């Protein structure tokens, strides 16, 4: 069992930056593919960024060039650096873990989820 706890959300203005963190329990974090998803009210859950156990990254088109996903395997922590935030980035952001070295773009292929952290960007 893996527990994921997100932090770092908040209310910011357009153009600001935030860094989200996801602390993971367990000793095999380094073997998991990890991802950030987000969900806005009335919308489907959207993949934001994924990172494989080996550090391969992939970003959704809406965040490419603005967001950076990274991981610290020594401290079992996943990060999402978000720059140049826009009002359309407003959502609940979720950290997810997949028991695989390989990433997946599909939310239903992730095995563990955090409770989410709210990000609100005002215009």
Helix/strand structural class: mainly beta
**Apparent shape:** globular
User: What summary fits the major beta sheet?
Assistant: 7 strands, mixed
- Helical stretch count? 0
Radius of gyration from CA coordinates: 13 Å
Q: What's the total number of strands?
A: 11
Poorly predicted tracts of residues: none
Task: Name the quaternary structure.
Answer: single chain
Helix content class: under 10%
Quote the beta fraction.
Answer: over 45%
Mean pLDDT score, rounded?
A: 95
Structure description:
The chain has 123 residues and is mostly beta strands. It has strands at 4-7, 10-13, 18-24, 33-39, 46-51, 57-59, 67-72, 77-82, 91-98, 112-113, 117-122. Strand 7 (67-72) and strand 8 form a beta hairpin. The mean pLDDT is 95.
How does the SSE layout of this entry go?
Blueprint lengths: L3 E4 L2 E4 L4 E7 L8 E7 L6 E6 L5 E3 L7 E6 L4 E6 L8 E8 L13 E2 L3 E6 L1
Parallel strand pairs: 2-11
Antiparallel strand pairs: 1-3, 3-8, 4-5, 4-9, 5-6, 7-8, 9-10, 9-11
What are the defining features of this structure?
123 residues, mainly beta, seven-stranded mixed β-sheet, four-stranded antiparallel β-sheet
Describe the structure concisely.
β7 (67-72) and β8 (77-82) form a beta hairpin. The protein is globular.
């Amino acid at each position: 069992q893996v527990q994921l706890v997100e932090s770092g959300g908040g209310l910011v203005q357009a153009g600001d930056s935030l860094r989200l963190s996801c602390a993971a329990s367990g000793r095999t974090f380094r073997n998991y593919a990890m991802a950030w998803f987000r969900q806005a009210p009335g919308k489907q859950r959207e993949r934001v960024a994924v990172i494989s156990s080996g550090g391969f990254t992939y970003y959704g088109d809406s965040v490419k060039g603005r967001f950076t996903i990274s991981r610290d395997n020594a401290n079992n922590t996943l990060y999402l650096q978000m720059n140049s935030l826009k009002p359309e980035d407003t959502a609940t952001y979720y950290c997810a873990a997949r028991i695989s070295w390989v990433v997946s773009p599909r939310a239903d292929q992730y095995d563990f989820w955090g409770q989410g952290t709210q990000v609100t960007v005002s215009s």
